[in-house]
Amino acid sequence: MKEARRQLVYEVVRRTARGESGRGIARALGIAPKTVKKILVREELRRTEGESALDRARPARRTPRASKLDVFDERIAAWLEQYPDEGFAGGYTIVREHLKAWRASHAPPARAFQRVETAPGQQGQFDWSPFEIETGEIENVWSYTLSWSRGRSFASDDNQRQTTILRRLHDSFTELKGVPHESVTDTMAGVVDGWECNQPILNIRFVDFAAYYRFAVHVSPRRYPPYKGKVERPFRYVDENFCNGRTFASREAFRDGLRWWRDTHAMQRPHPVTGRPLVEMLTEEQPYLQPLPRVAYDTRDVVQRHVDSTAHILYETNLYPVPEDYLGQLVYVCVGLDRLEVFDRGVHAIAELERIPDGAGKVAASDRKRRGRYDVTLLQARFAAWGPAAEDFATQLRRRKRTPGPELDHILKLQVTWSVDDIVAAIEHATKYDAFAARAIERILEARFRPRRLAEQIADATRNQIRDAMREYPVTQRALSSYETLRLGDGFLREPREEDARDETDDETEPR
């Protein structure tokens, strides 16, 4: 190992022992963060497995690999033959120095960035940045920064899902006590679905959230972080100040420390323009922010689940009980931080349950008596609700299969992906060929029909709900004479005529 390399390894190990983060070490030594991690892994391997003096004195072995120049071997050989013929007597060094000077003279000029200041309450910027803690877990640090005052909100999560983004935006607006008129971000998943003709396509749900809080969404150009530098710079401060010299034994310790550090350090920094503390600037900007809505936006995830044969729904490896009346049916589940709320297809609440930690593989507690695995009679009744074709199919399947319960339950679960109309059509097709099996129904659906999305399923349920409500309050047709005021003016001042009564009688008797 060369002396310079030994010195570099020593500096990396020394700074790590002092509590500096990998990013801070890489920035201080001018190397890549991956190099820091590679050095630490190699040093740990040396300490674990040992190293002989001979291996330490010899240069590191290089694994032979193909070169990018291999495909140019013939052209290089031709150049080497050509240069002496043209009188070139120089060597490698003079060519290298000439190219170095040429590149310096032809290099594009360094770009100067102009700081853009906006009016109070006009703009805010938000973004994520991942940080690895001592447990090896990744904490995604969230920051929302007001452009005028540099007032900042910090938080940390284990994911960057859209639901988390919406919740963090609401929490930031609440902490900053208002909503700016514009929010700037990058091509963040959950905010931008894609780009077309160099224009961002915003996610529909995020657009609805922005309309609810009345702020415009501004997406920065791709691969250009300086465009939203006011929110990028705080992440470097988190790395150099908050993470520097501190260790975190758990996610909770990191998050608690981040909240404390925001109030005691981050918001006490001087403003880069005025020099005043950020907390004072934030107080001065708050009157210019838009007020928060009286009721917060519902940021919960909405998923669809099938009630299995034991009257449970499955979410993130955990089972939650629902009333047995909904066995075999589809239900909507609104997933909150601490609770799950279950709704039927008519959007009526049927259960509210305490949420179990994701991935625990547990069954939520219930007072009811645990039922058998498959109630074939009840499952068959669900098919009867789909019509005579489905009812006959279930009867035939029950007669031919020794254990029809799993087959019937599997077909009912197909509602999550396919519409009931498509399933019934597949059942009718399978009946023609005596294919009384769940896998046969699934193959027919995959071959002949298109899976539906959750938005379409919710729209179908809403459409049915509106249709049921309109039966109780039908829309009646007006008499034609009521439109004469548009033609004659204040028609209600004139005396009623016989034609009006005749028109009303005709309207009532005319079939619709």
In terms of topology, how is this protein built?
Layout: H1 3-17, H2 22-29, H3 33-49, H4 53-57, H5 73-85, H6 92-106, E1 123-132, E2 138-146, E3 152-157, H7 162-176, E4 182-185, E5 192-196, E6 199-202, H8 204-213, E7 216-219, H9 229-242, H10 251-264, H11 278-285, E8 301-306, E9 312-315, E10 318-321, E11 330-335, E12 339-343, E13 349-354, H12 376-384, H13 388-400, H14 404-413, H15 420-432, H16 438-448, H17 454-472, H18 485-488, H19 498-509
Parallel strand pairs: 1-4, 4-7
Antiparallel strand pairs: 1-2, 2-3, 5-6, 8-11, 9-10, 11-12, 12-13
Can you describe what's shown?
This protein is an alpha+beta fold and 512 residues long. The protein has five domains: 3-56; 123-288, 2-Layer Sandwich (Nucleotidyltransferase, domain 5); 301-354, RNA polymerase II/Efflux pump adaptor protein, barrel-sandwich hybrid domain (OB fold (Dihydrolipoamide Acetyltransferase, E2P)), CATH 2.40.50.100; 376-454; 480-509, no CATH class. The protein is built from 19 helices and 13 strands. The strands form four sheets. Strands 3-2-1-4-7 form a five-stranded mixed sheet, with helices on both faces. A four-stranded antiparallel sheet has the order 8-11-12-13, with no helix packed on it. Strands 5-6 form a two-stranded antiparallel ribbon. A hairpin with a 2-residue loop joins β5 (192-196) and β6. α2 packs across α3 (33-49) and α13 (388-400) packs antiparallel against α14. The longest helix has 19 residues, at 454-472. It is extended. The N and C termini lie far apart (94 Å).
